[in-house]
Structure formats: C-alpha cells, structure tokens
C-alpha cells in the first residue's frame, strides 16, 4: 500500500479561488474541441443519434487529481444536458483502481469528447502529481518550490493551476506581471545597478528580481536593494554563503538544473525559494480510463 501523504491536500475552497475565470476555461475548451472535432466526428455517425449512455473514469495510477473544470466543460459544450458526478476533487490524492467520476449523457457526445476531456485530466493530474512529489521532498522546511514559464504552449494557466493543486507555488504568470532581469538584460543595460534602476523607473510597483551568477554579482545587487535575487547554478557552498551575505535583506531563489533528489539539500542551505522548470516541462501523464458501463434507457 502507498505510504500516507505528508503534505495536506489544498482545500477545495482555496483551489476554487485559484481557478482561471470560467470564460477563459470555456474558450480554452472550445479551441481544444475545434482542434479535435473540426467540422464533425465522423466515427460518431456510426452510433444511434438518440442513444444515451453511462460512463465512468478510473485511475490506474497513484496520483493527484487536477483538471476537473476543463473535463466538465468539454462535455457541457457537447451536451448541455450531461450529468457528471465527481467522487474526488482537484488536489486530492487518488489511488489505482479508484473511480473518479461518472458521466451520463448522449452516447455520441460522450465518445466525441472522451479524448479531449481525458487529455486535460491526464496532463494536469500529471503536473499536479509531479508538483506533489517535489513538495513532499522539502516537507517541514521553510521554502517554496516555484514553477517557471517553461510550460506547454497554450497551457500556461492550466499547468500553473495544477502546480498549486500539487502543493507547490507559482512564480510570475508571464512577462507582464513581474520583472526578471537576466544576463542579457544586464549586458544591454551596462551593469546590475543600471538594470535595476531602469526597471524601477519604467515599471514602478512591479516586482523586480535579478539573476546573478556569482557572489560578487549578489553583493552588487544587494547594494542596490533589490527585493528578490535569483541565484543561477550556485553550488551548495555558494548557496550557503549567499544566505549568510544576504542576511534577510532580499528574498533568495535557487535555480538551474535542479532535480528532485537534490531539492532537500538545496532547501537546507536556507534559500527562500527553489524554482524548477521540470514541474511543468517534464510531465508524465496520469494513466486514466473512461469506460462505458451500459446504455441508459
């Protein structure tokens, strides 16, 4: 039997507040259905137009569930009268063989929507499951595990929501809501100080973070008083020294080539955050199955 999960599931109420707006979910699903269905499901024409059916979704994996809103919206758009009953919710751990939901509606629409609905549920549950494993690796330590912009194109909001379902945290959503000054920005500006001062003038009020590659660059950033510093590819001794030098004056984020087996030792250096691109770019889909049970009279 799997061991008990040391990370508590996020509350359903909190997660509902993190969901993208319904209008955005509807638009995302319309695009996904258009990609798959186009101007009609040819195979579905083999089935009786008025037949009703009952199906259920089960998991074959130990996973964290995510994506129920997108799953629901697929079938609502195909069959507004569909009935979906969930037996688990986003952010909950599910076990092999567990029934996740039952779906009742028109047979044609159930089969037309099956793949799109499962694509959402499998990918987002895979993202949430990976995030949960990273969160478990640093359980009990005062550190946040952050995602990055390394998401699948077109699935940024969905994957970042899944990261929250798994118990990790979001970095900036995109280029529009925070400033992250990297090596090329510094080079173009002329210096760390010049880059930070320009950022503050041009986008007053926006969070500013700067990437540094050495302790000397860290010292320069601290002298300007930046609120966040990304420590790029620092070794463990350098991370410990960076924490000592900073002494709480700036929030420190470790990044660069970080794997789950190194998470805890990095967290123990005292950094505040660890950003991991692999949360969203190295995802293994959860093995789910939707199976028809019987026609409904």
Question: What does this protein look like?
Answer:
This protein has 297 residues and is α/β, with parallel strands linked by helices. Helices cover 41% and strands 19% of the residues. It has eleven helices and twelve strands. It has helices at residues 12-18, 22-37, 68-78, 107-137, 156-165, 183-189, 192-202, 215-224, 236-246, 263-267, 278-281, and strands at 52-59, 63-64, 83-86, 93-94, 99-106, 144-146, 179-181, 208-212, 228-232, 251-255, 273-275, 288-295. It has a six-stranded parallel sheet with strand order 6-11-10-9-8-7. The chain has a four-stranded antiparallel sheet with strand order 3-5-1-12, covered by helices on one side. Helix 3 (68-78) packs antiparallel against helix 4 and helix 8 (215-224) runs parallel beside helix 9. The model is unreliable at 1-5 (pLDDT under 50).
Question: Mind sketching the topology for me?
Answer:
Blueprint: H1 12-18, H2 22-37, E1 52-59, E2 63-64, H3 68-78, E3 83-86, E4 93-94, E5 99-106, H4 107-137, E6 144-146, H5 156-165, E7 179-181, H6 183-189, H7 192-202, E8 208-212, H8 215-224, E9 228-232, H9 236-246, E10 251-255, H10 263-267, E11 273-275, H11 278-281, E12 288-295
Quickly describe the structure.
The chain has 297 residues and is of the alpha/beta class.
The end-to-end span amounts to 39 Å
Q: What low-confidence regions span 5 or more consecutive residues with pLDDT below 50?
A: 1-5
Shape: elongated
Q: Could you give the order of the helices and strands?
A: HHEEHEEEHEHEHHEHEHEHEHE
- SS-based class: alpha/beta
Mean pLDDT: 94
Radius of gyration: 23 Å
Task: Report the strand count.
Answer: 12
Helix content: 40-55%
